[in-house]
Amino acid sequence: MKFLTFLTALIFVQFNLFASDTVIPFGGIVTCENEQDAALVKEAYVLAPISANVVDNNIKLTVKASFLTCKKTDDTFNFQTVGPFKSFNTYIPADVDMVKVITNKPIDVKLSAGTEAALFERVNLIGEAEQLIEFTIPKEMILNGSQLEKLAKGEAVTFKVHFNLFKQYEVTDNFTGDVFTTGLKSNIASTIVGTFSL
Fold first, then answer.
1. 119 contacts 162 by C-beta, under 8 angstroms
2. Phi-psi bin for 40: left (phi > 0), alpha (psi -120 to 50), beta?
3. Cα 30 to Cα 24: distance, rounded to the nearest angstrom
4. Each residue of 15-53: pLDDT tens digit?
5. What are phi and psi of 51, to 5 degrees?
């Protein structure tokens, strides 16, 4: 079973381990096992650590983002890579015998990094299905006093980083022809909490 969750994904850079949970941008637990999943899970993503380093007074984090969609191939359902700007349709019952087709076109995609209290940096993403994303965050903003002391003494430090995906869409109602743009939005339910070691 391909189990996907939003709330916790641990990243241990020191040992290069990563809980490979796949999340969707706006909350919930999803799978890719049947027709319903393929109809509902149009966009998902997974993060994997590449590196965490101290550079001057900053912590430089690099993660790999893979963007996915649930599709049926032959007789099996699997996540397949797709760019983060790929449009997708949703279907809404409009009447007894009618279904509205809504086209959702992502026009802005950003990944942010920070702490539970605040997000410090947002990075604009490109259209590639898999991409490396770098964050540079001042040490004082992400580490507490005792962690900074340990780091200064050359001791190992473990810290948490919260990642959130923000997306803005151009939405077209193909029934009425109405087009509108959503705000750049995210959801606390889609936060991935990564634990890094230096």
1. yes
2. alpha
3. 8
4. 222 344 455 555 555 778 899 888 888 888 888 888 888
5. -160, 160
